[in-house]
Amino acid sequence: MRHVFRQGRREELSENGLYANLHYFDSAKLTEDLQQPWIRESQRKQPSSLHLIFAHYGWQFVPACVIYSILEIVIHAFQPLFLGGLISYFAEGQTSISKESAYLYAMGIVLCALITSLVFHPFMFYVFAVGTRIRVAFAGMIYRKCLRAAINGRDGLGAQAISVMSIDLPQFDLTFYFFHDLWKGPVEACLFGYIMYTQINWTALIGIAFIVLLIPLQAWAAKAAAKFRTRSADQRDRRVKLMNEIISAMQVIKMYAWEQSFAKLIAKVRKMEAKAIRGSVSIYAALQCTNMISKVSLFLSLIAYVYTGEAVTARKVFILSSYYSLLNDSLLHFWPLAITTWAQTVVSARRVTEFLQQSESPTSENCSSNCSDNPTLQFDFKKAPAKPLSVGRLHCIESMEKSLTFSQVTASWNKPSVRQARTAHIEDISFKLLPTQLVGIVGNVGCGKSTLLNVILGEVELMQGHIEVHGKLSYAPQEPWIFQASIRDNIVFVEPYEEQRYRAVVHACQLDCDLAMLPHGDATVVGERGISLSGGQKARISLARAVYRKADIYLFDDPLAAVDSRVGKLLMDKCFNRFLGDKLRILVTHHVQLLQNVDHLLLIESGRLTQQGTYAELRDVIEKHAAPDLDAVEADKQLVKRVLSQVDRNSKLFQDPTETVDDQSNKESAFSERQQQGAVGYATYMDYFRALRSPTLVCLVLALFIVARVCQALMDIFISRWATWEENRATPEQFEETRARMVTWYAVLLVCTLALYLLRTFGFFLLCLRISLRLHNLLFDGIIRARMFFFNANPSGRVLNRFSSDIENVDVALPQAMMDSLQFFVDVVAVLVIVAIANYWLLIPAAIMAALMYFCRSFYIGAGRSLKRIESLTRSPVYTHANQTLQGLTTIRALDAMPQLEHTFHGHQNTNSSALFLYTSANRAFSFWTDLICVVYILAVTFSFLVINETFYSGDVGLAITQSMTLVIMCQWGMRQTAELENKMTSVERILEYARTPSEPPLETAKEINLASEWPQKGHIRFCNLRMKYAPDDIEILKGLTFESQPMEKIGIVGRTGAGKSSIIQALFRLAINEGLIEIDGQDIALLGLHDLRSRISIIPQESVLFSGTLRFNLDPFGMKSDEELWNALDDVKLKKYVAGLEGGLSCYMQDGGSNFSMGQRQLVCLARAILRNNRILIMDEATANVDADTDKLIQETIHTKFAQCTVLTIAHRLHTVMDNDSVLVVDAGKIIEFGAPHKLLQLENGALLKLVNQNDKITVNQLKKIAADSYMRKNK
């Protein structure tokens, strides 16, 4: 540790300097060791994580706690008796105790303090290690549960997993510190009660009785604390889950100008959470006042003893005082703390148990022979089953013949329920698919196509029928899953890297040009959810991942939806037909014109397989389910060639990692979390208190700490002087009169001290709670107002860490650490003053002790602070990894990536354990040395009275030694809490860092700009030399765009993926950094407030985002529309009948991300939102990409009728959706290539639009030209 401390003093420690994780903290081994005991536990009638902990780990900590508590009780029993013997030596006129005996008593006092210090820290370190092993093992179990979670049961599971891992599991780190205190307090009460009875007879029982009477209050407090913790944990889960959704959908929230609506929602949940926290804080505040109870007990016992006619001696006073102080700690501080801690542990353990009992995927059980099935099914994969399976899924990887068979399969997403019958989502489906077949699946939106693929994957539970899957599966989901890593890592994923295959896959999936245009080729790091990529790029990277995996059966869920026609045709030819030509391929798509050469077609209608056969056999039936044409846009080939000529393609596309280390590290640094440097500054503490915006109140509460402690010190000095006076009695008349006055003064001082302590403690905690609420509001405001680049650069786990563990620290742990630290400082000063009053020579060892303490703290604090920050930083990847895993769960399971991802998770855990172990080791070393310094100070104080040849009052001796003895306990707790305070203040730093994130321009328009309430009335849009980039240091995405739309004009925007189509929308909504001019109805939008701008433009976004909550909230979060208007909007998009059939109608519950609606239905909900907004400008960002022909036709009709008086900008991949528009804008590489009426553009020789149209067959070319001509003639009559 010396090396770490020295390095910590010289420089900031970094994660690279961590030692390797110790083998007994290895996450994978600990998780594996706990797996079987948990399986046995889960089979009990009422499984309990706490029962499992005691059954599996009890032998590790229970004996150690029992032995330590016995030793501590014995030391605590003898130390006051040694003190009494030493005080008696200084009593006036005593002759019974020799100087040698006095030295032995003094030695006894010092040895008791020394043994306590030598044993306490190794014991605490040991129980920490046990607690950490338990936490790490359960975190591994929770992640394993995440990997096995049922898709239909994961609503909010990501936020819940992070909440359990970040808030409930750390409870196991702390709880075993207090286990021995559960019985130590009552045992000490009985033993000390007997010893005190021998000293002052029955009057000792009065003080004990007063303490015992308060014990039922402790029980009530523990119960109430558990209740409040449960409430606050539930509300915190809701808040973190909601924040997870908000962060994931931030772009859509900003586009809809819904920030205020979600701010109200968060504020409502936070208010309920604060109410529960206020309850638990009040209980903790009351418990903080318990150190006054020993003073009251001493007062009651002494007054009773005085009124029995006995004389009070310094020996008796300080023996009683010591025992009551010890009882106060063990019975009224550590015992209730142990009870409340274990009450919280019970709640946390219950939440862990509930999480581990979540429903699992039907195929989460793996059999040992590379085969998986429903858990109830047993079979031998080498032989065919003796008889057909009745119900179940057989998946056999090593079968000789690769095939897929469905026999009368009915399946449902719904969980079995007694209350209502399960709805079948696919019904009575039978077919057999053979190796090397290319199979197309078509059908309307919401008919069950994706469900069918999920049934093949084993994600949906079968109600009847059976499935046989013979061969290894690969899968590309409808919603691409991209995680934060390089593009190469996203494609290769968990498969071994083979350069030749990788290059072939990149070429087959049409990613060559995209990678050539990226700054670091395939080494470019993409943000979480691929936020920095276009929709088409994400779709093709997701497709490449599935294709790269060597499998026998490939499942593709509508991968062509987000790509243009040229790329679609190339993918069909190069990827599906050539590269995977010898495999069984199953392709879900709405674009059936690309399926002319498939071997087999399945037509699904309302969950049933109505037709199957070849394309020729089904041609007439399926044409109505087809989009008439997939064609849209081809990139300008000359432009691409020019780009490629400037780039060394091989070095750009497939960079050697050694050549790009510097570039890549710079790129990754944008995505890495910044570690704070140096001490937590004075400014951070000021900012914390300044958040309250009431400096007078802060100063008043802090002043109460000093006043209360002065009052207590006066009372302590008064008792010692009274005891000395009692030993030197005057005449009886004067004696009784003075004694009565003494008792009165004693009572007054006690009442004043008690009142001040109550005021101080409750005032401080309620003040901290108000600060905490303000800091949360500042953090939320900072995040919700941050620019979009912030969310591209920071993964959700990192941001959620601020809202979960950092806010929890500021809510609960920080006020406690700050309270203890403030109390420690005033207590130390008070003790040194009191001891100096008794013997001024003791100022010398006090000064030496203070210097040594300061040296120790300065030696430790640099390393301690760095290690705490590293521990916080290494925690974030654990949560981010868990969150990203849940986002791509189906893909992960389909690609058999669970073992590798679990290995990565264990790696993150091990790094965090290494940081935590080093931090705790540093903490323990620091505490151990401060304790030894205190023991030396006690030795100096105790022996000073014997060595210095002066006469001392027995009361002063007792007061000085008892005060110095309390110093050990103070320093054990106080120095640790001051360091803990600084560590917890890093949470305030981290919160303030995000609260001060550079924000977007103002939401409201300046008053001097007189914006009409009905603006824009015409919908006239003008771009003039517009340049746009996502971040100040980024390259320009849009490069000098200039065009103008007329009022009510319908403009189609086309261009290859990554050409900058969606960036035009970003610029219009001012989501990025614009340079140049955009005007709407003659008003420069750069001068408008963002809410005024964004709320006046309707959008149907590229990714249809829904939030968990009711459908009503998703349509109208501000509650401004009537039910009739909502139903009309749903009727316009043909969802009224479907929604009316759902339980609750408009109040039906939408699961996380709207996962209980199909992609097409989610798109229709977004269209309904646009209808409800009734604005003059509508933006459609590839809105019809995931819908079938009928739905597409419906959307186009709705646009023509409902938005006839609006200016409509449509970003589309399919030419038929824009050929009847007034104008078409062709974009490539951020520049405009062509702009004009489609009919006129088609007359241009070598025109970009003409090239695109001519790529189709003659019939389609003529049809498209006719649509353009008819539209042009109709509009120009």
TrEMBL record:
Membrane topology label: Multi-pass membrane protein
Protein's UniProt name: Probable multidrug resistance-associated protein lethal(2)03659 isoform X2
Transmembrane segments: 103-128, 202-222, 697-723, 743-769, 824-842, 926-946
Subcellular location: Membrane
Record carries keyword ATP-binding: yes
Limits of the ABC transporter domain: 404-631, 1021-1254
Organism, as annotated: Drosophila arizonae (Fruit fly)
Biological classification of the source: Eukaryota, Metazoa, Ecdysozoa, Arthropoda, Hexapoda
Keywords: ATP-binding, Membrane, Nucleotide-binding, Transmembrane, Transmembrane helix, Transport
Major place of residence: membrane
The ABC transmembrane type-1 domain, residue ranges: 64-331, 700-983
CDD domains linked to this entry: ABC_6TM_ABCC_D1, ABC_6TM_ABCC_D2, ABCC_MRP_domain1, ABCC_MRP_domain2
